[in-house]
Design goal:
Layout: E1 5-7, E2 10-13, E3 18-20, E4 28-31, E5 45-49, H1 53-60, E6 65-68, E7 73-76, E8 79-85, E9 93-99, E10 102-106, E11 128-133, H2 145-161, E12 165-169, H3 175-182, E13 190-192, H4 194-205, E14 215-216, E15 230-233, E16 249-254, H5 263-266, E17 271-273, H6 281-291, E18 295-301, H7 303-312, E19 317-319
Parallel strand pairs: 3-4, 4-5, 5-6, 10-11, 11-18, 12-15, 12-16, 13-14, 13-15, 16-17, 18-19
Antiparallel strand pairs: 1-2, 2-3, 7-8, 8-9, 9-10
């Protein structure tokens, strides 16, 4: 039996009787990061990087959770587990699993472009590598972060000169803090949607990251204060009545999906900025090479397409859960 195997609940280590990012309810769960599609309610015990813990307890409530440092080894029934930086969001981790000299790495979500807030990605050599494939197509190639923020700043200045508020959307956990950290406050005031502000305060309270000053949108502000402002908000505000309080405004979306033609139009946005918290095509391929893994398992995204492409390059690659 392999050290890690696929079950209906997710990635499973039978020797240690523990799951990684399980979907179904399990007794013990190793969590790569605190996004809701990886950190779910209902497990009896959780283990995650300690920067993920305050977000997990905020979102999941009263759970039994233990925090670990990057590089700290935790042994369970003879199996060694350790967390290593994934660069996806603050607290995100790749999980290294070792037993009798055999090493697996479950990467979770990761990116290799430094964002200013997350611990930079670390290559973890292994025999077997489980990689995401969210943006595993050649069309997805990211610009340097500085260039994207230059685009955002030009858009913001233009809106401010026209007397319009700038609404910029990004996931409330990770992307929103990345936006806040890298915006130029000399252009105008920076506001955050309450959901984003709450995550910001949790990170600051627990010393996870140092964030610039911002104002929380309370609802009682006079509209004039928004005329030169940028407001960071979650994607859920798109097409909502919440936006009306900022009129006139321009809506921008920060997402890797903005690399696709027509994506901005379909979401009724004025501008799209290609900014992703996942690895792009080049970074995925470089990581597969850098790990030195003898077998590659692909999940989360274009798994069929990417595994076929890797096999064409000479790799022993399969979709996670597929029989060899």
């Amino acid at each position: 039996m392999p050290l890690l195997t696929a079950t209906p609940e997710g990635i499973y280590c039978p020797i240690a009787n523990i799951h990684i990012d399980p979907r179904g309810k399990v007794s013990r769960a190793l969590i790569t990061h605190a996004h809701a599609d990886h950190s779910r309610f209902g497990h009896q015990a959780y283990l995650a990087h300690h920067h993920s813990v305050p977000i997990m307890t905020h979102r999941l409530g009263d759970i039994q959770v233990q925090g670990a440092e990057y590089g700290e080894t935790i042994r369970i029934n003879g199996v060694s587990f350790s967390f290593h930086p994934a660069g996806h969001i603050p607290g995100s981790a790749q999980i290294r699993v070792e037993h009798k000299g055999e090493v697996w790495v479950a990467a979770g979500d990761y990116k290799r472009q430094f964002d200013g807030i997350s611990t930079p990605f670390e290559v973890v050599p292994c025999h077997h590598f489980i990689t995401e494939s969210t943006f595993a197509l050649p069309v997805y190639r990211w610009k340097p972060q500085a260039e994207v923020f230059d685009e955002i700043h030009r858009w913001w200045r233009s809106n401010a000169e026209a007397g319009k508020a700038s609404i910029l959307t990004g996931y409330s956990l990770g992307k929103a803090q990345r936006l806040l950290k890298n915006l130029d406050p000399s252009i105008g005031p920076i506001f955050c949607h309450p959901t984003v502000a709450n995550i910001n305060e949790l990170f600051k309270e627990h010393g996870v990251i140092d964030l610039p000053t911002f104002d929380k949108v309370e609802g009682a502000e006079k509209k004039e204060i928004y005329r030169s402002a940028i407001i960071i908000a979650p994607p859920s505000v798109q097409n909502s009545s919440w936006l009306k309080k900022f009129a006139p405004y321009s809506l921008g979306i920060s997402s890797g999906w903005m690399a696709l033609r027509g994506a901005r139009r379909r979401r009724n946005a004025d501008r799209g900025f290609v900014l992703s918290d996942h690895a792009d095509w080049n970074a995925l391929n470089q990581t597969v090479k850098d790990t030195g893994a003898e077998s590659i398992w692909v999940t989360h995204g274009y798994s069929d397409i990417y595994s076929r492409w890797l096999r064409a390059q000479g790799y022993d690659a399969r979709v996670w859960g597929e029989e060899k």
